C-alpha cells in the first residue's frame, strides 16, 4: 500500500526555497499514527511562527504519523482543562498535542506543550521550553523530538542540522562554492564559508561544534577544520598530492583521512591534539573514503584492491582487513549506522548509482533509492533516516529516505547545485 502526503511549507533563507515539499510514503506504514497538533495558543505573541506547523511537518516527514489538518478539528484547546477526549475520538485521533507560546516575565518566549494518549485519556508528557524570538523554530523542533521519542521510544532527530556544499554558476568565471548549514528540513540556511574554489567531503565533529572539509583554495586539496560558532579555521594537512575524505572519530579526538604523501592514496588517522599521523592501510590499490565504526576501533573504507571498488573493514589495533561487500561491481562511500550492524553505501546496479543498506550480520542488501546518480549518504544520529545527494533535471539536490526505504522526500533547490551533505549529531541530549 502506498500513500502520499503533500505538505505546504515556507522555507525562508534557504536554497530549498519552495512552497511545496512532496513526501512519499511507500511500502509500509499502512496505518500511521493519527496525531493532532492543535495550533498553539498565545495569539498575543506577535511576529512569531506558530510552533504547531513546524511540529506537524516534522512528524509527517518521519512517515510514522499522519497529522490532522486544523480545519478538521472540532475544538482548539491550548490548555489541559480545555481538552475533551470525545472530540478527538470522534476524529479517530490516536495522540493529541496542545500548547501555548507566550512572552515570559523577562521577555523570553515560553512554550508549554502537552502530549495525550486519546484512547486511554491520559497525559503522556509535558515540557516547558524557553528562548528568544529567534529560537521559536528550535523549540518547535524540540517539541517534535519529545513527542516522537515518547511515542516511538526512539530519540527524535528533528533538532539536528545538516551541512552541505552549494555550488553556483558552475562552468563560468563566476563559479562560487559555499559551505552551508541548515535545519534538517532545509530551513534557515546560513553560509559558513564561501570560496571561488571547490569544497568537498564535509564532516561534523561528534560534539557538533566543528566541521572538517577539503578546500581547493590553495590550488590543490587541503584539509581544514572550522569552528561553527566563531568561523575560526585551522589547516590540518597540506601535503603534496591528495589530502581528502576527513571524518571525525566517535570521541572527536582523531580524524580519519586519505593522503597520497607516500605516492599512493592510503588511509591515515590523525591525533587532533598532536597532529601525529598513523598510516592504516598499505596496499598498491587506491584506498579512500574512510568511516568509523561506532566503537572507534575500526574503519570501513572503499578500495579497488579486488579489481573493482568495494567496501572493506580494517581493525586499527591489528590491521586485520576484511572485505564487506560482494554483490555488484561497484560499492563505495560507506557509512555505519549507530547500531554497528548495518552499513549504507553507494551501489551501482544496471549502470545506475543508488543508495543501498547492508545488514552485515545476515549479509542481506536492500536498495533504498530509485533515483539516479545518488551519492554521499549520511545517516541521522538516531539511525532512522539518511540524507543523500542526487540529481533532478541536471541539478544537484538533496533527498532523504528512511532506513527501511518506506519514506522518501526531496528538498528541491532553485539556487544552484547542492551536494556533499552530512547530518549532524544530536545538538542536545535526547528527551528521554
Structural description of this entry:
It is a single chain. The protein is 8% helix and 45% strand. The protein has 432 residues and is mainly beta. A six-stranded antiparallel sheet has the order 1-2-30-29-28-27, with helices on one face. Strand 5 (95-103) and strand 6 form a beta hairpin. The longest helix is centred in the middle third of the chain and has 17 residues, at 136-152.
Structure summary:
The protein has 432 residues and is mainly beta. It has helices spanning 51-61, 85-90, 136-152; strands spanning 3-8, 20-25, 33-37, 65-67, 95-103, 109-117, 122-131, 161-168, 176-183, 190-195, 199-204, 210-215, 222-227, 233-237, 243-248, 254-259, 266-271, 277-279, 287-292, 298-303, 310-315, 321-323, 331-336, 342-349, 352-359, 364-367, 375-379, 385-392, 395-402, 407-411, 417-423.
Strand and helix map with partners:
Layout lengths: L2 E6 L11 E6 L7 E5 L13 H11 L3 E3 L17 H6 L4 E9 L5 E9 L4 E10 L4 H17 L8 E8 L7 E8 L6 E6 L3 E6 L5 E6 L6 E6 L5 E5 L5 E6 L5 E6 L6 E6 L5 E3 L7 E6 L5 E6 L6 E6 L5 E3 L7 E6 L5 E8 L2 E8 L4 E4 L7 E5 L5 E8 L2 E8 L4 E5 L5 E7 L9
Parallel strand pairs: 3-4, 3-5
Antiparallel strand pairs: 1-2, 2-30, 5-6, 6-7, 8-9, 8-31, 9-10, 11-12, 12-13, 13-14, 15-16, 16-17, 17-18, 19-20, 20-21, 21-22, 23-24, 24-25, 25-26, 27-28, 28-29, 29-30
Helix pairs in contact: 1-3
